[in-house]
Amino acid sequence: MRHLEFAPAKLNLWLRVHGKREDGFHEIETLMVPIATVKDELSFDIELGDGELIFECNDVNLETDHQNLVLRALNALESESGKKFCGKIKLDKKIPLGAGLGGGSSDAAATLRAVNGMLGNPFSTNLLHSIASRIGSDVPFFLEGRSAICSGRGEKIQTLEDPVPDHSVVLVKPEFGVSSAWAYSKWEKAEPLPEVNHVPQSITWGTFYNDLELPVFQKYISLANMKMWLLDQSESEVALMSGSGSTLYALCDDYDKACSLVEKIRIEFGTAVWTAISSIGK
C-alpha cells in the first residue's frame, strides 16, 4: 500500500494557561489555526505482515526510534487492530523542530489518517480521536486541521463555525528551539520582563496573547527583543510567539506587506533565521 500524506503546521493565535492539573498537565485554552503552506510530507509504502518496518527522515536531528510520534501512532493502530505493519515510512521534514508549530503532532495525526484510509477506514472518528489524545495533546487538532478553540490539555476541540478573517502571516524562528515541557514547567513562577510588552494585542476581530511568553522570554532574551522589533514594524498588526516557541508570528494586512516584513527581518537578523509567509482564514 503506497500513499502520500501531508502534515500541516499550526499556529496558536492566542494561548491562555489556567494552571497545573493533578495529572501533571496544564489546563489551557488556545485558538489554533492550520498553516497549510508549511507542511511535512509522509510517504508510506507498507503492508500487513510481520516483516521489517523501516522509518527514515531527512532531518538528522530528529529521533527515529520508537519515541518518534509517527511510530507511536503506527504502534497505537497496531495495538488497536491486532495487526502488524511492515515496509517503509519516509518523513520529509519541513516544519522546523522545537518551533511551537506542532510538527511532531501533525506527523502523528497524518499517520493515523493515512493508515486508517489505506485499511479502508475501519477506525471511527471518535476512536481515532481517542487514540490521538493518548499520543499527544495537540494530535487530535490535526486529525481534521480546522480552526478551533482547543482546551483541556489541548485535546478538547471546538471547531469554529466561522473561519478567522483572511490575513497574511509571517513566521520567523531563530536557530534555537524551545522544549514545550520545559516552558510549561517554568510557567507558574515566571515573571514579566519590564522592558517587554506582554499586554494583550487587540484588532477588530480578536485579542491576542500568549502566557508562555513569560518563561520563554526570561530565558531567551533575544526572542523577546525580536518580538518587540516586530511590534515596531509598520507591516505588523499583531506580533506574538506561537505555542511554546521559538517561532514568532506577525499578522499582516496583505501579502505585499508580509514580503516587505520578511525582507526587513533578513536585513535585521540575518539569513540564519528561518522565515515563511503563509495565510490564515482561507
Gap between N and C termini: 32 Å
| Mean pLDDT over all positions | 95
Structural class by helix and strand composition: alpha+beta
Secondary structure: number of strands = 12
Helix content: 25-40%
The run of helices and strands is EEEHEHHHEEEHEEHHEEHE
How many domain units? 2
Poorly predicted regions are: none
* Alpha-carbon Rg, integer: 19 Å
CATH architecture designation of the largest domain: 2-Layer Sandwich
Overall geometric form: globular
Please name the CATH topology of the largest domain: Ribosomal Protein S5, domain 2
CATH secondary-structure class of the largest domain: Alpha Beta
Largest sheet, if any? 6 strands, mixed
Q: What is the percentage of strand-forming residues?
A: 25-35%
Individual helix count: 8
In short, what is this structure?
This protein has helices at 69-81, 103-118, 125-135, 139-144, 180-185, 213-219, 221-232, 255-269; strands at 2-20, 26-48, 53-57, 85-92, 148-152, 156-159, 167-173, 201-203, 206-208, 238-241, 248-252, 274-280.
